[in-house]
Each structure stands twice: as structure tokens, then as C-alpha cells.
Amino acid sequence: MKTLEDLFSAGVSGRRVFVRSDLNVPLDGSKITDDGRVRAAVPTIKRLVEAGAKVVVAAHLGRPKGEPDPKFSLAPVAGRLGELLVTGVTLAGDVVGESAKAAVAAQARGSVVLLENVRFDARETSKVEAERAELAAELAALVGAEGAFVSDGFGVVHRKQASVYDIARALPAYAGGLVLAEVEVLRKLAGEDTARSNRPYVVVLGGAKVSDKLGVIANLLTKVDKLLIGGGMAYTFLKAQGHEVGNSLLQADQLDQVSGFLVEAEKRGVELVLPVDVLAATGFAPDAEFEVVDATAIPADREGLDIGPKTRELFASKLADAATVFWNGPMGVFEFEAFAGGTKAVAQAIADGDAFSVVGGGDSAAAVRQLGLPEDGFSHISTGGGASLEYLEGKELPGVAILEDSTVEEQK
Question: Catalytic residue numbers?
């Protein structure tokens, strides 16, 4: 695929460049509670601005139902992006309407226009290719015949959407720095022939549902040396081993699948490590009473909300000699202070090690920042939880595939 270096070689000064970023940040009202994705989007946009491009940025926020919804406006994001770029960012009042056209037409070199939430237009996520292509053509028209497309929103490249996929057919397409870095990291993690120097390869999976990670587990069992399971998904594994899990999160319909994973891990010599103790609470609440109990003896009237102290030590010991680590999913309900200790302990163990370490986006990345851990303690913090997982499942990412296809087409 072509990169920013190829685009700069072709010249960008005075040229309009359409950038698809991932600015889908969590909000509390109009306040951004974690600006990690905005900060991750800055380097590519800044390089284009400094090169004199007229930058038009598209992004989504939340899940509006294909029409304008004030609570999903990108206004807070525009403000924060402008602060980080140390330059004003003009927010258009629509996606491809009169406001967007006027804002783009008035652009000077080195300026940035952020289109309003692209999902305010139902065609963005349409399953009908012709509808997506129609929106892509209108987005491309904003930057004109001499424009270019830069894909830099890794968190959405697993979606076949107009501003991610179809627009790469309408404009010369390039991979932004963020997308390129993410793909390079994931290729290393997904490598079939992991070099001896990159082993032991340890994967830590958490989060609520084992069903969200079935494909990842199945694929990684063929590649890793150790698989540590925490979070809500651990209770389905414990139940599959025949243990009482009380009121803990349980996906009973996945028990057969999980039992198969346990057998497959043993067959392949993969060390699959489950919690040995948990914080068993009286209910799902930040102030719920709890006690530390063996993971094999959770009281019937309690639910596990975090891994216990022995498990934290166990997981840390399994990570100590790792050469490669991939972590996706918290070990407990880290949003509640009383049940954040397990996630923090595992994250700290990874940060303290010498491994090539990747935090798989989503809640894991949010936990690193919320718990005050140094981001430079990890080799890479992904911005794309869903995209990262799908890549590690072995699935094709449409937004990446189209960049590669575009390059092939130009070479013909």
C-alpha cells in the first residue's frame, strides 16, 4: 500500500487531502473523558498541515441513527483537535451539505476542516454498495479531482463504510502513519513463524464476554505459548471446568466451545492460565461488599468482579519472562475503584517487563490512561480494539485491503 511518503513525493502543498480519522471518543455530556484517539490522530494531520495541505477530516462519534443528533456532534472533538494542533479547526455543520462545501471552499493552505459526524448520513453505514458509493463520490467531490485520500482511522478499517472503504476507489488512496503502524504491529503479533527471539509469546485476554473473542482465541492457540484469561469471560472457562461461579457473568451457550479450547490448549502445549482467586461481591456496584475467595469456590449468591491477589501474582509471574505480549480486555470492573486492582496489576507487570508489548485498544487502552499508568511503558497502544481483534482472528480488514488493491490497480 502507498504511504504518506508517497503522497508527499507527489506534492501536497495547496492540495486538498481527505483524511478519515478515528475520533470516536467517550463523552460525559460534552466533555471528553479520554482523548487518546484524538491525540493519536494528530501526527498525520499535523504533517499534512505543515506541508501546506488543505485538510478535510471525516470521523464518526457514537451510533447516531443515520440522521443529525446533537448529542453525537463532533463539536467537543473539534475543540480538542484544535488545541492539540495549536491551530483552529473549522467544524462544518453537516457532512456533505452546503455548510461542508462552504467551509472547504474557504480553506487556506495549512488549515483543517472537520466534517460533522459522518454517521449523520445513513449512506455511510449502508449495506447497499451503490448508496455508500454515492456518499463516497460526494465526499471525494469536496476535495476535487486533484484531491487525495488518507486512511488513518484504524479503529474503523474493519468496516466496509463509505468514508473508509468506498472513497478509496474514488480518490488516490494512501495509508496514514497510524494505520501503517497498527498494521505493522499486528502483522508481527499474527506471524505464523514467530522467531525464537520473540518467545515466549504471552496473550492476556479479559473483558466481559468470551463470545467477543472466540475467533481470536481459536487463532491464537496456534501461535502463543501462554494464554492468560481474566475478566468476566474467565467465569465461563471456570464453569466449563465444573466449578461454581455464583452470580458471575456466564455465557452458558459458550460452554462447549470453551471446553474445546481447554482441550485444544492442552493438545498444543499452550499454557492456559485461569484465575485462582477472585473478588466476590454481593452485587454489581462500586460500593458492593466483597471478599476474596478461591476461584473454584465462588459463593452461589456472589459475583466475581475482579481477579484476586494470588491471581495477580500468578499472572505477573507468567508475564515475567515474556518476549512478546498482547493484552486485550480488563481483568475486572476497572471503572469501579474497588475492582480496578487486577487490571492495574497486570498492566503494571506488562509495563515493568522487557517484552515487545501491545495493548489492544478499547477498554484496555482506556484503563492504562484512567489508572494513571505511563503509556511509554508499552511498545504500542492500539486505537482499534475491534479491528485489532478481527485482524488477529485472521479476518481481512476491508479498509486495509482496499488500500492494497488500489496500489495494485495503479500498477497495472
Answer: 37, 209, 362, 386
